[in-house]
Amino acid sequence: RLPTRQSILGNFSTGSNVLHTDRPDVHFRMDADSSGFYETLVVGKGADSTSRTERIAYVGGSGRKGQSFLYWSGDKLFQLPVSYYTGLNTWLGSPGRVGIDPRASFNRTVAPRCFECHATWMESVPGLTVDNQYRPDSAILGITCERCHGAGRQHVSRERSLMRHLVRDRSIVNPVKLSRERKMDVCAQCHGGIGDPQRPTFTYVAGRRLEDYVRLVPKASDEFVDVHANQVALLSRSRC
What we know:
This protein is an alpha+beta fold and 240 residues long.
């Protein structure tokens, strides 16, 4: 989502907007004003301190467990170093930031596969050296109907065509009519873990075999599974 007072659960009030680190000369500060929402790294104290500030561009996560935040650097997207954790009601280091140099904690790239689960569409710019380059005006935020039902515009074009009765319609999918395996695939596109992409982002359509698009890593039956792991694999082994 876009950042607003309603979409960001973290507290920006003085006294609640600072994350201290294990280094007394390093802290992060979260600020909000009429121009937007920001995260700032402060190194040093007083007149000798230096800082780096980045503006929150997107809010990731419903907030049931927490939220992370992204920022633009040109046309590249990175995760901000501080996230909000709902259960603790506080700001803490983002996943993957622990134990690294705070000054490098702004460098965690956001790969296209992330957007397959956190957005309806984000057009990436293919490159040999980076995987986090996008067209900023292409974003369709949130999980809309098209993630599970297919492309609405394609469906409308087909219905307006004089040949619509002669062509089998695959532009809109009703998951109720799919086999059990293909139904599970619809869920697994987001709840099957990060996986190893086999085809370009956002090319999977409900009803197709997901393994042709993303290779998911199976989990041991006793392995702890969080939101980024293969939850669907556990469900498929359950009595349900």
